[in-house]
Structures are given as structure tokens and as C-alpha cells.
Amino acid sequence: MPYKTILVHLNDTRRAEAVLEPAVRLASRHNAHLIGLHVQAAVPAPPIPMPYGAEVLRSVAAAQQKETDELGATFARLTAGQPFVAEWRVEKGQRVDPVDVVMDHSRAAGLIVAGQTDPEWNATPLQDVAERVAIGSGRPVLVIPYVGRYPEVGRNVVVAWKASREAARAVFDALPILELAEQVQILQIAEGGARGSGLAADTTIAATLARHGIKPTVRTSVPGGIGIGDEILSRIADLGADLLVMGAYGHSRMRELVFGGVTRHIARHMTVPTLFSH
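Below the sequence we write its predicted C-alpha cells.
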């Protein structure tokens, strides 16, 4: 079944077009209802009266409204004349953390599109919410890299596969994209990293996809002295993929934050749009 509701989270005027382009293309391809969502972060009043405090708050509110208007105009421009229904939503955050608001809207969508965490942006800790939405919403999240433009997503797809709950969910969450892809490649990585580990191709998921009319190529790979995350990035470059599909946070998120992990590495260093599912 195609995606019928796609939610795109827009939080940064600099990256709005880059995040919107693939969302618009997917909405057109699936004839989906496209929702553009912007959350204005709450502006807490100072705990004690301050000179010119009201003026400062008005200035912040005016800057927020200007950003909202610019994002709304970009959404209207890129969705104008499209065959699908486009809806623009603005939430004035009553809560300090915008992710709670994004989560509320996300749970009724078939797919969420959001921007990658941008380490150079001062507002990233509060405004870039893709990873947290992927963990908490129960919906797949397509994350668009903060560098580059990706108007066409889902023609040549690599699925990072392992026999896990998260990977299985990611594959089935991505079915609407996989069914329309020109090429689907299942990539299985030997986590032990040794050639003697006896890695055998897991063809069960390929057989299941074949019943959906998808003819995937199954590939296995052994990291040559590099981490699994870097091995995946190397292989998707070699294969010319325009989309990576993978399960997110097979270990606890706290463990990945402290010790690192494949999800965290890909989320920080992705080179193509990546569909995460938890």
C-alpha cells in the first residue's frame, strides 16, 4: 500500500527546500496528503523582572513569526500545482521541547520526513528532532542530510539487513518505497568482522520481498578493519544508492549515546537520505 499521509517537519529556513523536495516527490508518487509542520518553540518569560524584558520577548516573537512566514511561503511554493493535497500546520509551542508537539502529529502519519542533526546550527539541540521522533513515534522517519540536495529518493535502495526486530520493521515500513524502486539491494554485514565467521546470505527477507513483486539483490560484506557504520556508508557509495533503509537503535539509546553504535554513526555521518525505523 502507498503512503497516504506524509508529514514533513520544517524547522530551519536554510534547509527547508532540501527537506521539502524529496517529501514533495514522494507525496506526488504516492498521491499522499502532505502535511508541512512547523513548531514555534515556547519563549519562557524570565524568572525575575528584567529591564526591557517585554521588548526582548517581543523581538524574539517577531523573529519566530518571520521564520514561520518564510517556511510557510516555501512550503506553498514547492507544493503549488501538485496533484496531491498539501496542508500547512503551525503549532505555537506551549511546551519547551518541540519534539513533544512533533510526536503528537507524527503518530497519525504513514511517513515522517525531517532534517538531519546539523552540528553547526546553534538551535540543533532543541529543534533537530528526527532521531527522537524515530524512537518515540512508532512511525518510520526519512532523514534528509543537512548537506546536499536529494530531490529523487527511492530509485536505488540499499536495505541494511540483520535478523532483528528493528530491521524487520524498517523493511516493512519501507515497502511503499521498495515496491516502486528500480533497484533494491539487501546488504548484510558480518558483525564479527572476521572472514572465518561463516557469514551466509539471509535470503528469507528477499523471498518475502519477491512476493511483493520486488526483486532484490542480496549482498554480504565483511568490514575490513573499519566499523560497521563506515562499512555501510562505503557500500552504499559503491552501489550508487539514493536511499538507505535500516532499523534504529537495536541497543538502548543510552548505550549508543555513551558507547557509540551503528545507528548513531549513520545518523551523524549519513551521505544519502536514510529511513530509520525503531
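The radius of gyration is 20 Å.
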